[in-house]
What does this fold into?
Amino acid sequence: MNIQNVNQNFNHMVHAYKVAPWRIQRQWIGSAFGVVVVLAMVATLYLDVTSKAAIAGREIQDLTASITISQQVSADLQTEYATLTSSSVMKQRALELGFRPMKSREAEYLVVAGYTVPQPDILSSAPLPQLSVLSILPEYNESLLDWVDEQIALSSRGLR
It folds into this structure.
């Protein structure tokens, strides 16, 4: 009976599709439309990711160009500063302001009572601790050759 039931259902479906062939066409059109929708969604996602990557790349290029321009401006300003503070320009500016080179007989020295010339800390050294042979442990007074000699002597005596 079960096989007859299945057979009847199959025959009924075949008959239904023969009577209305547009049902098959509708299923094919629906499937095709579904595939087109999925492909459109994938394409939209791809375009979104690609556009964001392109925008980020363009921003990096703009920032790199901005850094290059800033470095060039900085180099120009350093060159201008070096030119303005060169000895020949400074001498010319001093002469224009009314200064003149000093003569040695015009120098005046002022003696300040109690002033001592400061000594730089780098040149002064703290007193080193006095190390004597007695304050160093014997293990640190032994050379590698002494240690090897002692090891050979101990192994030859059978103490090892």
Residues 54 and 102 are 66 Å apart (CA to CA). The mean pLDDT is 85. Helices lie at 2-19, 22-84, 87-96, 144-157. The radius of gyration is 49 Å.
